[in-house]
Structures are given as structure tokens and as C-alpha cells.
Amino acid sequence: MKHLPLMTAFICLCMVTYHGYSQDNDAAQKAWMAYKTPGDMHKMLASDVGEWKTESTSWMEPGGAPAKSTGSCTNRMLLDGRFLETHHTSTMMGMPFEGWGTIGYDNSKKMFVSSWIDNFGTSLMYMEGTWDDAQKAIVSKGKFPDPMSGKDTEMKEVYKIIDNNSRIMEMYVTGPDGKDFKVMELKHTRK
């Protein structure tokens, strides 16, 4: 009998702990469902699904002569509409070029996240960005390694949605003077 108050306190503690855990568990489940469920930004990315022709213009230095090339890309959604995968093929500097990218919208960070790999390098490029309503564009920032210096270079990408059948991607790097200069413009036209 003298252990009854101790046992009653233990049972009360277990009930309070279970109730708190149950509420935390419900909140965690709701948070995970919101995190994992594709939304409007994912639907916008899905509008890029299909076959596209590309026209690329690139510059090696500010004011330099542009290099031009044509190619194609195929876009498809992955993981039940969570990520857009893009596969590009073309020629650059007279050589075959192939690149793969993914972009998605991170519901937790409230931003776009993207990765890029290609046969012109051995690193993975990672960028994060937001939607700019004024430009109708995803504006992303990241870094990539400069093979000459061995240091990272700041970069910016602006992916403009012109209409259902046209996109323009502009890529900028930050030069030693701290100013951005356009190194590439890639026009997409739906096939």
C-alpha cells in the first residue's frame, strides 16, 4: 500500500508523456506530409516536361566574341512529380556536350534546389533559388570550381518562363572586379 502513491504518480507521468508524444507525433506527421507533397511550384516545373530545341550563346570574357551552338534537351518529372530531370546534348567548342540536371522545390526551405553534372567537368554544381514574379523567372545562386585557380566562383542563373513553348536560361559569373557578367544564354523552344 505504501507504494500506491508512487505507482499512481508513475502512471500519471506515463499518461502525460504518452499524450505529449502523441501530439508531437501528430504534428510531425502533418509536417512530413506538407514537406513531401508536391505543390504549385512542382506543377510549374512539370510544365517543362517534353522535348526542346536549344540555341546556346556563350562568352569566355566580357566583350568577347560569342560562341554559338544548337542542341536539344528532354525533360521529365521524377519521384511522382517532385523533381524535374533534364538531359541536354549539343556541341560546345567543337566537342560533344552532354549534361544532366535536376530541379525541385524544397517545401521546407521554401526555395528551388538544383544540381547539374556534365562531361565538361568532374564536379556537381548545386544551386538554390527563389521565384521572381517580376521577371517570371527562377533566380538561383551557387558556386562552381574554377579549374585555373582551384577556388570556387560565385554564379547566378536566371531561368525565365517566356510562354508555354519558350524558355531562356541566363548564366552569370562574378568576375574578379565583383561584377556579374553573362557567360551563357540558352534559348529553349518546345519541339
Quickly count the domains.
Answer: 2
How many beta-strand elements? 10
The end-to-end span amounts to 84 Å
What level of helicity do the residues show?
Answer: 10-25%
Fill in the CATH topology of the largest domain: Lipocalin
Q: Which structural class should the secondary elements be placed in?
A: alpha+beta
Q: How many helices does DSSP assign?
A: 2
Shape: globular
Mean pLDDT: 87
CATH class of the largest domain: Mainly Beta
Percentage of β-strand residues = over 45%
Widest β-sheet, arrangement of strands:
1-2-3-4-5-6-7-8-9-10
CATH superfamily label of the largest domain: Calycin beta-barrel core domain
- H/E series, N to C? HHEEEEEEEEEE
Question: From the alpha-carbon coordinates, what is the Rg to the nearest angstrom?
Answer: 24 Å
InterPro entries: DUF1579 (IPR011473)
Pfam family, one: DUF1579
Protein name: DUF1579 domain-containing protein
Organism: Pinibacter soli
Describe the structure.
The chain is of the alpha+beta class. The chain has 2 domains: 1-36; 40-190, Lipocalin, CATH 2.40.128. 21% of the residues lie in helices and 52% in strands. It has 2 helices and 10 strands; from the N terminus they run ααββββββββββ. Strands 1-2-3-4-5-6-7-8-9-10 form a 10-stranded antiparallel barrel. The termini are far apart.
SSE topology:
Elements: H1 4-36, H2 40-46, E1 50-58, E2 67-78, E3 83-92, E4 95-106, E5 111-118, E6 125-132, E7 137-145, E8 152-163, E9 166-174, E10 180-190
Antiparallel strand pairs: 1-2, 1-10, 2-3, 3-4, 4-5, 5-6, 6-7, 7-8, 8-9, 9-10
Pfam families: DUF1579
Protein name: DUF1579 domain-containing protein
